[in-house]
C-alpha cells in the first residue's frame, strides 16, 4: 500500500488545520480543506489568506506565488469531496469519539490505499485507529504551532501501522522541507512529553507567587536562550489545549511533574484561553491578537529605581575582579575590598555590597577569604543603614539575612552566562525583602546591560530549577526507551525552536554540573519529590565520563 501522495485532505481548519493546509499547498500538493459549516470554512479561508498576505507584505512571496498556492486549495463543507485524497489529516477537536466518527466516515469515502492521519497532540493513535476498517493505514502526523514556521513533524506509528505507510509519510514530510521524527505511540510523543513537564513546573512557580509572569518568561527566554518564555508559549498554544495535553500525559505518567495545575484549570474555565480569546497569562489587543497590551499585572514605573550608585565588591579572586570591571565599566563608583578579613569600613559609603569571594577561598586557612557567616555579620555592622547586601555565591538569602540582621535588604544574585537572547542576573529574595531593595537591584542589573529576574530564593532560583529539571527529565525519557538521543534532540530543537536539544545541552553544560544541580534540587525537597531524583542514566554518564551526543565524543 501507500502510493505516491499528491492530493491531501485536511479536516478542521482552525489555527493548526489551516497552518497544515498552507504547508501542503506551499509544498506543491493539491489540498482539500474540509470544515463542518460555511462559517468555519470562511474562518479557515480567512486564516489562509491573511497568512499569504503577510508573506507578500514581508516580501517572502510575490503576488503570482500567492495566487498559485491559493489555487491549489479547495475549501469545502462536504466530506465526500475528499474522495481523491491520497492522504487525509484530521485536525478536529481532541475528542476520541469525534475522531472515530471522522475516520469511520473516511473509510467509506477515500480509496483503500489512502493514508489516514491524525494531528492529535494528546490522544493515542492506537486508540484512534482501533475501530477503523484498516488500522494499518492509520498514522499520527503531529505538526507544531505555528505549523508554517516550526520544522518538526512527529510521525507516530502504532503496532499495526504498515511500514510502507510510515515510510511514505516520512518521505512526504521531508519533501515539504520539514524534519520528521518517527516515534512510537506514547503519551505526549516526544516533544510534548518533555515540554509539558517543564511547563507544569513553570506554572507551579507562578501559582505559588514565587516569580512574576514577566520575570518567569524573561528567565527562560533570555536566561536559558529559549525562543519564548513558558507563559507566552502557553498563550500561543492555547490554555485549553495545554490543560488537555497535560491531563493526558499525567494520566499515563502519574508523575507529580505532570500533575494538573489547578490555576490552569481555573483560567480555562474562566475563558482565559490565551491569544485566541484575547486573554491568557497576558492580555492581547483582541481575540487572535499577537501583541501584548498592558493590564492590571503589568509592572508599574516604580518597579525599577536608580537607588544604587556606589557599589562595594568583597573578594580577591577572578569572579570579584570581573565583577569590579563590569560594574565600573557600567559607570558605577566601585570600592574593591580584596581582603575580606581586614578592615571593612570601605563599604560604609556603598548602596550595594556584593560578596564575591572564590567559593573555596573562604574555607582555606591563610587565604584572604573569610567565612561567609562571619563576613555577613560584619557587613551588617559596617554597611550603612538601607544598603543592600548580596552574594553571587550559592548561599541562602534567608540565612545571610538572619546573620546580617538586614532582613529587608539581603539577597542572593546569580549571574548567568549570556545566551543568544541576552543575559539574565537573578535576584533571590526572602519574604521580608523590601520593594525598595528589589526596585534598586532591578535598576542596577539593567545598568549592567543585563535583564533582572526576581524570585523567592528557592533551590536553583528560576533558570536552573526549570532547566535542570527538564534536562534530567530528558535523560529519564531516554532511559525509558521513548526515543533515541538524536530523535529527542531533533524534536526539541525543531519542534520548539530551542537553540539545541537537551542532550547537546547537557554535553555543553557538562553532565556533572547538571547532576550536581539536580542533586541539590532533589535534596532541597528533602528527597520527597521523586520526580526530581537524578536519573540513574545521568549518574552513569557522569561516572563513566561518557557524553550523550556523538558530536561531543568526537571533540
Ligand atoms: N503563524 C504563522 N507564522 C508566524 C506566526 C504564526 N502564529 N508567528 C510568527 N510567524 C512567522 C512570522 O511571520 C515570521 O515569518 P518570516 O520570517 O517568514 O517573516 C517568523 O514566523 C518569525 O516571526 P517573528 O519575527 O514575528 O517572531 P519570532 O522570531 O519571535 O518567532 C516564533 C516567532 C517562530 C513563534 C518563535 O518565537 C518560536 O519558535 N517560538 C516557539 C514556538 C513553539 O514552541 N511552538 C511549539 C509549541 S508546542 C506545539 O505546537 C505542540 C502542540 O501539540 C501543542
Instruction: Please identify which CATH superfamily of the largest domain we are dealing with.
Output: NAD(P)-binding Rossmann-like Domain
| H/I helix tally | 21
Global geometry: elongated
CATH architecture descriptor of the largest domain: 3-Layer(aba) Sandwich
Q: Indicate the CATH topology of the largest domain.
A: Rossmann fold
Distance between the termini: 44 Å
How many distinct beta strands?
17
| Class per helix and strand makeup | alpha/beta
The structural domain count equals: 4
Task: Give a list of the ligands.
Answer: 3-hydroxybutanoyl-coenzyme A
Radius of gyration: 27 Å
Give structural notes.
The protein is α/β, with parallel strands linked by helices. The chain has 4 domains: 7-184, Rossmann fold (3-Layer(aba) Sandwich), CATH 3.40.50; 199-293, N-(1-d-carboxylethyl)-l-norvaline Dehydrogenase, domain 2, CATH 1.10.1040; 310-456, Rossmann fold, CATH 3.40.50; 463-544, N-(1-d-carboxylethyl)-l-norvaline Dehydrogenase, domain 2. The protein has 21 helices and 17 strands. The strands form 3 sheets. It has an 8-stranded mixed β-sheet, with helices on both faces. Strands 12-11-13-14-15-16-17 form a 7-stranded mixed β-sheet, sandwiched between helices. A two-stranded antiparallel sheet has the order 9-10. A hairpin with an 8-residue loop joins strand 15 and strand 16 (424-429). Helix 13 (372-382) packs across helix 14 and helix 18 packs across helix 19 (511-524). The longest helix has 20 residues, at 38-57. The two termini are 44 Å apart. The model has no long low-confidence stretch (mean pLDDT 94). Pathway: Lipid metabolism; butanoate metabolism. Belongs to the 3-hydroxyacyl-CoA dehydrogenase family. This is 3-hydroxybutyryl-CoA dehydrogenase. Keywords: Oxidoreductase. Pfam families: 3HCDH (PF00725), 3HCDH_N (PF02737).
Amino acid at each position: 500500500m501507500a502510493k505516491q501522495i499528491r492530493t491531501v485532505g485536511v479536516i478542521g481548519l482552525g489555527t493548526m488545520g489551516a497552518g497544515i493546509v498552507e504547508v501542503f499547498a506551499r509544498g506543491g500538493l493539491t489540498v482539500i480543506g474540509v470544515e463542518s459549516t460555511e462559517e468555519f470554512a470562511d474562518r479557515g479561508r480567512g486564516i489562509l489568506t491573511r497568512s499569504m498576505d503577510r508573506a507578500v507584505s514581508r516580501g517572502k512571496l510575490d503576488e503570482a506565488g500567492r495566487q498559485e498556492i491559493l489555487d491549489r486549495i479547495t475549501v469545502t463543507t462536504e466530506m465526500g469531496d475528499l474522495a481523491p485524497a491520497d492522504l487525509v489529516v484530521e485536525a478536529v477537536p481532541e475528542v476520541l469519539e469525534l475522531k472515530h466518527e471522522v475516520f469511520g466516515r473516511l473509510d467509506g469515502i477515500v480509496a483503500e490505499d489512502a493514508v489516514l492521519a491524525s494531528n492529535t497532540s494528546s490522544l493515542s493513535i492506537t486508540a484512534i485507529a482501533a475501530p477503523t476498517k484498516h488500522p494499518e493505514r492509520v498514522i499520527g502526523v503531529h505538526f507544531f504551532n505555528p505549523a508554517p514556521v516550526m520544522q518538526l513533524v512527529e510521525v507516530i506509528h502504532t503496532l499495526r501501522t504498515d511500514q510502507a505507510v510510515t515510510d511514505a509519510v516520512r518521505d512526504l514530510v521531508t519533501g515539504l522541507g520539514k524534519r520528521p521524527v518517527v516515534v512510537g505511540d506514547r503519551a505526549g510523543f516526544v516533544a510534548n512529553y518533555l515540554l509539558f513537564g517543564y511547563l507544569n513546573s513553570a506554572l507551579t512557580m507562578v501559582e505559588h507567587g514565587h516569580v512574576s509572569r514577566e520575570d518567569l518568561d524573561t528567565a527562560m527566554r533570555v536566561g536559558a536562550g529559549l525562543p519564548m518564555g513558558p507563559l507566552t508559549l502557553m498563550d500561543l498554544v492555547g490554555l485549553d489545549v495545554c490543560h488537555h495535553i497535560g491531563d493526558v500525559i499525567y494520566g499515563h505518567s502519574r508523575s507529580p511533574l505532570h500533575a494538573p495545575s489547578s490555576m490552569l484549570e481555573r483560567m480555562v474555565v474562566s475563558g482565559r484561553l490565551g491569544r485566541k480569546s484575547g486573554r491568557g497569562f497576558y492580555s492581547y489587543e483582541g481575540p487572535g491578537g499577537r501583541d501584548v497590551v498592558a493590564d492590571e499585572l503589568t509592572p508599574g514605573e516604580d518597579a525599577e529605581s536608580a537607588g544604587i550608585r556606589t557599589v562595594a565588591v568583597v573578594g580577591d579572586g577572578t569572579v570579584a575582579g570581573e565583577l569590579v570591571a563590569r560594574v565600573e565599566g557600567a559607570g558605577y563608583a566601585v570600592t574593591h575590598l580584596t581582603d575580606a578579613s581586614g578592615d571593612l569600613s570601605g563599604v560604609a559609603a556603598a548602596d550595594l555590597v556584593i560578596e564575591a569571594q572564590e567559593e573555596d577561598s573562604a574555607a582555606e586557612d591563610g587565604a584572604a577569604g573569610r567565612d561567609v557567616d562571619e563576613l555577613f555579620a560584619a557587613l551588617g555592622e559596617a554597611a550603612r543603614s538601607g544598603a543592600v547586601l548580596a552574594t553571587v555565591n550559592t548561599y541562602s538569602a534567608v540565612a545571610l539575612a538572619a546573620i546580617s540582621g538586614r532582613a529587608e535588604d539581603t539577597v542572593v544574585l546569580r549571574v548567568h552566562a549570556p545566551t543568544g537572547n541576552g543575559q539574565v542576573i537573578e535576584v533571590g529574595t526572602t519574604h521580608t525583602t523590601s520593594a525598595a531593595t528589589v526596585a534598586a537591584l532591578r535598576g542596577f542589573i539593567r545598568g549592567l546591560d543585563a535583564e533582572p529576574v526576581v524570585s523567592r530564593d528557592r533551590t536553583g532560583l528560576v533558570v536552573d530549577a526549570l532547566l535542570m529539571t527538564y534536562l534530567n527529565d530528558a535523560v529519564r525519557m531516554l532511559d525509558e526507551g521513548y526515543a533515541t538521543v538524536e530523535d529527542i534532540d531533533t524534536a526539541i530543537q525543531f519542534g520548539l525552536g530551542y537553540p539545541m536539544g537537551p542532550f547537546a545541552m547537557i554535553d555543553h553544560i557538562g553532565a556533572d554540573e547538571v547532576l550536581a544541580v539536580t542533586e541539590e534540587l532533589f535534596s532541597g525537597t528533602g528527597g520527597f519529590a521523586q520526580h526530581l531524583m537524578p536519573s540513574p542514566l545521568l549518574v552513569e554518564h557522569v561516572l563513566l565520563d561518557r557524553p550523550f551526543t556523538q558530536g561531543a565524543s568526537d571533540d
